[in-house]
Amino acid sequence: MPTARPRPEPNNGNSTPASIRIDGRIDVVVHLGFAVLMVSSAVRYVMRHSPADNVWTVALAGAVCALYAVTAVLAHRQPLARRQPTGQRAQRLWIPWMVALVAAWAALVVVAPSFAWCSFAIFFLTRTAFRGWAGFVAGGATAAATAVGLFRMSGWTDISMLLGPLAAGALLTLMYNKIERDAAVQRKLFDDVTQAQEQLAANQREAGIAAERERVSREIHDTVTQGLASSLLLLEAAQRSWPAPAANNDVRKATDLLRRNLADTRSLVHELSAPGLESGPLPDALEHAARQYFETVSIHVTGEPQPLPSEVRHALLRVTQSAVANIKLHAGADHASVTLGYLPDAVTLDVFDDGRGFDPAAVPPASANGGYGLRAMRQRVEQLGGELSVESSPGDGTIIAAQFPLPRVPDQSNTLKEAL
């Protein structure tokens, strides 16, 4: 199975996307800026106006501050409210506070333009609270109230005081919309990547399960199925010759084969490994495996023996078992041989019989009645980067040849010379 890699958690609605809320740290800066500007604007207004004018204006400023605080807290608690049914009900509870804030702010900035600098915080809060046309209306109302207040402060003469806030509001709206669109694209890309990662993980799990099923099916075919098929042939032969002495011999062979088959099955169930494969000479293991099915098979070794990877040893054993079992079941051969060849960068296995042979191109596809052996052998060899070939024709016997590549071992003498 492939190694799992860490994946980002999908956006399940518990976190607030950037397109719906301003980043939390920016919120803090905006709120602190609003508080500082409100205090400084209030001080400036009080110092420049009479106490009679201060009372109602300061009271209105206090109301704006209270409405801002309530709206900011509620907006922070329900940043994604409009996406969910329960959140929509919660949203309706605090949006009236936002409407009241905009109305109170418009009255304040028209009456006391000294508070116009706080418009930036009000603008961002309105865009956090409203979506679509409502956000544009709330932001526009904030900019328009600021423009009227500043234009009034100039004595209704300085046109720049009127157009400046409107232009600034339009610019901020364009910038905010661009940020929202970019955030929406990023969120979509994030969702697409998360979905792709989940699909990839699911495909990898399915591929791993399919590969494991193929491997287990090959193990069962090369051990349990072949052993049971050979035992069945022996018992059928004993039944036909019973009570002749040869029947007892066939029954004994079938019993021994079933006993070994049971041991292989237990090993397959507990560890999916061939008993004794990881230790002991490989030719002896091949001979033991082959003679379970064909007692007179001969084993030959060519080349200089060398250590082999465990997966290659395992494949050599299983290919030998499957090939020799096919000789017993189908070939009707008098002689069979297994040749293990060591090459500098590969190991080969040749299984020969002088039986009736067959046409490799006419082999039927695998089914419940058989036909899985050659396919399983080929899959096993090719998964290790090797090649399997079958040479046969009717009446001329069969040769099954497998070759596995081996990692090249560096020449220690050359390495020593290079080091010197």
Q: Quickly give the structural class.
A: alpha+beta
N→C terminal distance: 44 Å
Q: Runs with pLDDT <50, length 5+?
A: 1-22, 79-87, 415-420
- Global mean pLDDT: 75
Q: Helix count, per DSSP?
A: 11
Shape: rod-shaped
Extended strand count: 5
- In N-to-C order, the SSE pattern is HHHHHHHHEHEEHEEH
Approximately what portion of the residues adopt beta-strand conformation?
5-15%
Helical fraction: 55-70%
Radius of gyration over C-alpha positions, nearest whole angstrom: 42 Å
Could you describe the largest sheet, including whether it forms a barrel? 5 strands, mixed
Q: Give the strand line-up of the largest sheet.
A: 1-2-3-5-4
Task: Provide a compact summary of the structure.
By secondary structure, the chain is of the alpha+beta class. It is built from eleven helices and five strands.
Please tell me about this protein's structure.
Helix 1 runs antiparallel to helix 2, helix 6 crosses helix 9 (310-331) and helix 8 runs parallel beside helix 9 (310-331). The chain has 420 residues and is of the alpha+beta class. The chain has eleven helices and five strands, in the order ααααααααβαββαββα. Helix content is 65%, strand content 8%. It has helices at 24-48, 51-77, 85-111, 119-129, 132-153, 159-241, 245-271, 282-291, 310-331, 373-383, 412-419; strands at 298-302, 336-342, 346-353, 387-392, 398-405. Among the domains are: 24-157; 281-408, Histidine kinase-like ATPase, C-terminal domain (Heat Shock Protein 90).
